[in-house]
Amino acid sequence: MVELRVLKTFIAVIDSGSVVAAARERGYSPAAVSRQIAWLQRRLEVRFFEPDGRSIRPTPDALEFASRARELVDEVDRFERYSNRFSESRARQRA
C-alpha cells in the first residue's frame, strides 16, 4: 500500500522540481524525501525522475502518476475537511 504522506512528497517534488524544495515544503530533510521517492519507485517498479544537470526532470510516467495521485490527495483533503465539519456539527448538537 502506498502511504498518503509519500504521495504528498512525490507531488511536492513534481510541483517544485526539486528534492530540496520539496523537503523544505514538507518539513523533511532532502535525504528523507529521496528515500520516500526511491521507495515509491521500487514499490511501483518505475523510474519517475531523470537527472537534468544539477536538478531532476519528471518522466512521462511521473507526470501520469502525479495526475492520479493529486486526485487522490485532493479527495482525502476534502474528506478531512468534511470530517472536521461533521464532528463540529455533532458536538454543537450535543451541547
Mean pLDDT: 95
- In whole angstroms, the N-to-C terminal distance is 40 Å
Largest sheet: 2 strands, antiparallel
- What is the overall silhouette? elongated
Whole-number radius of gyration?
17 Å
Counting DSSP H or I runs of 4 or more residues, the number of helices is 4
Name of the CATH first level: Mainly Alpha
What would you say the CATH architecture is? Orthogonal Bundle
Which parts are unreliable, with pLDDT below 50 for 5 consecutive residues or more?
none
**Which percent bin holds the helix content?**
over 70%
User: Topology as H/E string?
Assistant: HHHEEH
Q: Could you tell me the strand content as a percent range? A: 5-15%
> Total strand count, please?
2
Order of neighbouring strands in the sheet with most strands:
1-2
Polypeptide structure, described:
- The chain is mostly helical and 95 residues long.
- It is built from four helices and two strands; from the N terminus they run H-H-H-E-E-H.
- It has helices spanning 4-16, 19-26, 30-44, 60-94; strands at residues 49-52, 55-58.
- The longest helix is centred in the last third of the chain and has 35 residues, at 60-94.
- The N and C termini lie far apart (40 Å).
- The mean pLDDT is 95.
